[in-house]
DNA sequence: AATATATACGACATTATTAATCGTATATAG
DNA sequence: CTATATACGATTAATAATGTCGTATATATT
């Protein structure tokens, strides 16, 4: 439990890889996939999603690829996680209130407190710190 | 991602339920399962595990059940989670070092830093705070 | 002693989620 | 025109979480 997904892992690997390059140099999904042993298509989809989220810029065609578009020190880890994986809740009923026992439940409030702590922690770390 | 398991959720519900009772009063798995709509057998196994971990005391036979044994203000959420679900790592390779790309990986150190933050956060909260 | 009810626990089955692949379309450098 | 790259929905595979079953043991009650 409390694991991050491979998607996020791959995204971080890719960002860190690009960070170590010249700012407007392009990196293809293939290059990263090969270097780190990541399934290329899966990585590509993740990079595409990051492009939709304006974290990366994509350039099509041969010699195309991706480069970092956003200011990584302006994006919190919380926002990054939520962009990729949706709302961050330790339990499903943190957001959805269609939980069967929403009435009987005796831990909803305490869990929300823990969850707030967690979200707060991730809100205070930037992508820059992780990938620099 | 970053979800807690139902096992942990059920354990917290059970603890909170018992906390609201007299200290040496016994509570059966059945009682809790019925009241909160939890699968009885699954809950029972979780309570048994907590008994093995000396968080609860179990009493067999009819009119048996469980009661809180440990001082909940002495058990951190981190220890509680790890008792129930094993080592707390956001990625598998935080503990196991049999990761394929342990050499090539460029995010191992940063991820460990995030993970340390998370473990630290859970180490600073006690079970008491959650279930009181 | 017999019975009913509770814990104890390994093995199995089911379900949900995550991870990976496939197929097809579009863009563009050479 | 061709090779190579992104774009992306649909599908399958793999893994992990969740739930159930079967059986054993303890013990209060009758
Ligand atoms: S389990 Fe859904 S509200 Fe508590
Ligand atoms: S992915 Fe395993 S060490 Fe980074």
What does this molecule look like?
- Two copies of one chain form a homodimer.
- The first copy, chain A, is mainly alpha-helical and 132 residues long.
- Helices cover 49% and strands 6% of the residues of chain A.
- Chain A has two domains: 6-68, Winged helix-like DNA-binding domain superfamily/Winged helix DNA-binding domain (Arc Repressor Mutant, subunit A); 74-131, no CATH class.
- The first copy, chain A, has helices at 6-19, 29-36, 40-52, 77-85, 108-123, 127-131, and strands at 56-59, 65-68.
- The first copy, chain A, has a two-stranded antiparallel ribbon.
- In chain A, helix 1 crosses helix 3 (40-52) and helix 2 (29-36) crosses helix 3.
- Chains A and B meet through helix 1, helix 4, helix 5 and helix 6 of A and helix 1, helix 4, helix 5 and helix 6 of B.
- The complex binds FE2/S2 (inorganic) cluster (2 copies).
- One FE2/S2 (inorganic) cluster is lined by residues 93, 99, 101-102, 105, 107-108 of chain B.
- Chain A binds a DNA duplex (30 and 30 nucleotides) through residues 1, 5-7, 28-30, 39, 41-42, 44-45, 47-48, 51, 58-66.
Descriptive keywords:
mainly alpha, DNA-binding, 2 domains, Arc Repressor Mutant, subunit A, homodimer, binds FE2/S2 (inorganic) cluster, two-stranded antiparallel ribbon, 132 residues
Helix content range of chain A: 40-55%
- What spatial order of strands do you see in the largest sheet of chain A? 1-2
Instruction: Give the total of domains of chain A.
Output: 2
Secondary structure category of chain A: mainly alpha
The CATH class of the largest domain in chain A turns out to be: Mainly Alpha
Main sheet makeup of chain A:
2 strands, antiparallel
* Rg result of chain A: 17 Å
Helix-strand sequence of chain A: HHHEEHHH
Instruction: Tell me, briefly, the overall form of chain A.
Output: elongated
């Amino acid at each position: 439990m409390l694991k991050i997904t491979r998607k996020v892992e791959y995204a971080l690997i890719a960002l860190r890889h690009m960070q170590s390059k010249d700012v407007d140099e392009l990196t293809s999904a293939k290059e990263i996939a090969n270097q780190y042993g990541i399934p290329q298509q899966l990585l590509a989809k993740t990079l595409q999603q990051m492009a939709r989220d304006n974290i990366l810029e994509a350039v099509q065609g041969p010699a195309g690829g991706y480069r970092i578009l956003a200011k990584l020190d302006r994006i919190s880890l919380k926002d990054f996680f939520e962009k990729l994986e949706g709302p961050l809740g330790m339990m499903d009923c943190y957001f959805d209130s269609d939980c069967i026992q929403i009435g009987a439940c005796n831990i909803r409030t305490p869990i929300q407190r823990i969850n707030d702590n967690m979200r707060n922690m991730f809100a205070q770390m930037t992508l820059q710190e992780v990938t620099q």
